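note to self: dont lose this again. the chain is below, predicted strucutre after it. 197 aa total, dont forget to put it in the shared folder this time
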Amino acid sequence: MYLKDHGPLLRSIIWMGILILVLLFWPTKVESPIIKEVLIKTHYVYVDKVTDLPEEVVLEESEPIIPPRYGFTDDDIYLMTVLLCGSGDTDGDGEYDVDFGNQDNHEQISLVLSVVMNRVMSSKFPNTVSEVIWAPNQFSPMPRWRGGLPKVKPESYAIVKAWCDAYDSNDLTVMSIPETHLYFTGNGTINKSRERW
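---
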């Protein structure tokens, strides 16, 4: 008789107890420290199976990839070396001959190479190193090499390559002149740049 009178209350108590037990023992999200570390470092990770992960997951945050400013080829660097130095066997046959004791004057080296790249970037000239250097009546040492380019000294090539690498990596400290300077004049030992001819 007691159960009959209090049946709805008793059923409610039983259901409340079951609900409490379910909430207490309901499985919770288990986060492995490895997955947590991956989520923190990458922000967007989809993991299908935890067992697919190796014992240790180490993700390095990489710096954004910056494309080269120009993207010099070996041929570009060689041609710029010929323009700058001429033949490794002859003194004074380049725009600024570093082969014979002028290796340390980075300002003059950069002046010649900067004029080339300022022209490449200008809408007034062709947009490749080769076309700028071979343009008629532009660089006085170049006509003599139309029949075949000379050998250059490895040290001269290395100097020009270092300049080109710095330029490509957007290190504009190698630019010794303003980007508007498209011309230079001088005697091969002391050159001066300017905007207009």
